[in-house]
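Quick start: what a row looks like.
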Amino acid sequence: MKKPLERIFQSALIKEIKERFPGCMVFKTDPNYIQGVPDLIILHGSNWASLECKRGPSERLRPNQAYYVEKMNEMSFSRIIHPDNKEEVLNELYKTFKS
């Protein structure tokens, strides 16, 4: 099965996040500002998270992406998300936002 383009996956993901977490705010980052910062920043109540979107599990990370995902995960919650792990990541995010 062919994986959707990252931008198509990301657009559908933003919509799903807003449905799962009513009242949240989702921001797309500017890849030209700081290279490697995750694609999405999610604010929900007093919590926040970041997500790096990929087409699939074998897609390569760009320079600094692993660093920023790890660093932001130490601060709050950050993951690399793709269609194959989407449910798992969103369930983890739900648990984080509810704790």
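That is the whole record. The two ends are 36 Å apart (CA to CA). The CA atoms of residues 24 and 45 lie 7 Å apart.
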